[in-house]
């Protein structure tokens, strides 16, 4: 072979390498969500508002937590699964040009007890359609096996009919974050929705590493915010010596914490690596704080008062409701469109203590 031919081969190889490099770089940019601080400070207010038990104030978006950055939110549907003490809503945020879906975290017991129970949650359910992907049945069921899912899906459809194909932003705090992740995945996989993004605050782990691979592939536009020493993101535990068997977080974590000393303390928002289990983020601290769990970006999360499932509504808003045989409620701005599926086949054993 003469020199010129070698040269050609070499040039060709370079081109291949360069274009492969470009391809990778492009995929890299495309693949990873960009953390947007402003958006986080807005979505956390939705995740906070959904905890409130005065359904009138929530439905009409006049609650104490409905003011700041979420002003002007157009509620479409408020879903109250009384049976399992779950709550969520779907509406349109015109300033974000997005449908916002928010889920409440746990309300049924003291947060301390709930967190302690998280240690013992098993990876006991195979996520349908994803070989080897295991999740905890309670988190899965809270979204998939209650009135929450049919309520959310019909409201999303309604919002799309009214406002067109907007971006969908799914959010939630604590267990509501776990539900947000399942909802985002559901919209993407089963409803073929485009443009879904998930942002959660202080959520627990929900599945194993096989689940995380699928999740990450399907829902790359996910940000999982953790705060300081918040205990919940540390649970159920991650066992680094059993990588195939353990719970595993999906990416991308953004860890809020403070660095510095004395009067020189300043806040940092660290965008973590793509593993989901970046050892230099929240995993670098022991994580034993409940108070860090209940405050993100200076916004209070959790119920008021904590730990009750009571609901409050006045006759005006009651007129918008549909109720099923179990007392579950859906409030819809467009009642004709509301489809509260009467879920007769729920497992009676999960009632009242879904996780
Ligand atoms: C961040 O989000 C806000 C609110 O949605 C938006 O106005 C802004 O353009 C976003 N910034 C970037 C860099 O995407
Ligand atoms: C959800 O409910 C259905 C109907 O009762 C049941 O067959 C299924 O096992 C439940 N799913 C899970 C994950 O428990």
TrEMBL record:
CDD domains: Lipase_3. Pfam families: Lipase_3 (PF01764). Residues 1-21 form the signal peptide. One of its GO terms (molecular function) is hydrolase activity. Residues 100-238 form the Fungal lipase-type domain. Keywords: Hydrolase, Signal. PANTHER family: ALPHA/BETA-HYDROLASES SUPERFAMILY PROTEIN, FUNGAL LIPASE-LIKE DOMAIN-CONTAINING PROTEIN. This is Fungal lipase-type domain-containing protein. It comes from Ilex paraguariensis.
């Amino acid at each position: 072979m003469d020199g010129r031919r070698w040269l050609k081969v070499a040039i060709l190889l370079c081109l291949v390498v360069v274009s492969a490099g470009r391809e990778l770089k492009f995929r890299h940019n495309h693949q990873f969500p960009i953390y947007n601080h402003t958006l986080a400070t807005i979505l956390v207010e939705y995740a906070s508002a959904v905890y409130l038990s005065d359904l009138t104030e929530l439905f009409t978006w006049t609650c104490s937590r409905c003011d700041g950055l979420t002003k002007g939110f157009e509620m479409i549907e408020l879903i109250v699964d009384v049976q399992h003490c779950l709550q969520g809503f779907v509406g349109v945020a015109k300033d974000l040009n997005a449908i916002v879906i928010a889920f409440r975290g746990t309300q049924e017991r003291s947060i301390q007890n709930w967190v302690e129970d998280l240690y013992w949650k098993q990876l006991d359910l195979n996520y349908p359609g994803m070989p080897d992907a295991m999740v905890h049945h309670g988190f899965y069921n809270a979204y998939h096996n209650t009135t929450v899912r049919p309520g959310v899906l019909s409201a999303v459809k309604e919002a799309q009919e009214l406002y067109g194909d907007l971006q969908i932003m799914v959010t939630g705090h604590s267990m509501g974050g776990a539900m947000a992740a399942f909802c985002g995945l559901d919209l993407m996989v089963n409803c073929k929705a485009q443009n879904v993004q998930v942002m959660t605050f202080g959520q627990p782990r929900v599945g194993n590493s096989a689940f995380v691979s699928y999740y990450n592939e399907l829902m790359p536009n996910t940000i999982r915010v953790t705060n300081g020493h918040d205990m919940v993101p540390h649970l159920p535990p991650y066992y680094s010596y059993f990588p195939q068997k353990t719970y595993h977080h999906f990416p991308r974590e953004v860890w809020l914490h403070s660095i510095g000393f004395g009067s020189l303390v300043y806040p940092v928002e660290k965008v973590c690596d793509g593993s989901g289990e970046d050892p230099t983020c929240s995993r670098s601290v022991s994580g034993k704080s409940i108070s860090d769990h209940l405050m993100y970006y200076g916004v209070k999360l959790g119920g008021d008062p904590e730990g009750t499932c009571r609901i409050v509504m006045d006759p005006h808003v009651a007129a918008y409701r549909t109720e099923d045989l179990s007392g579950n409620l859906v409030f819809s701005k467009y009642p004709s469109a509301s489809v509260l599926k009467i879920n007769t086949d729920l497992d009676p054993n999960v009632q009242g203590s879904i996780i």
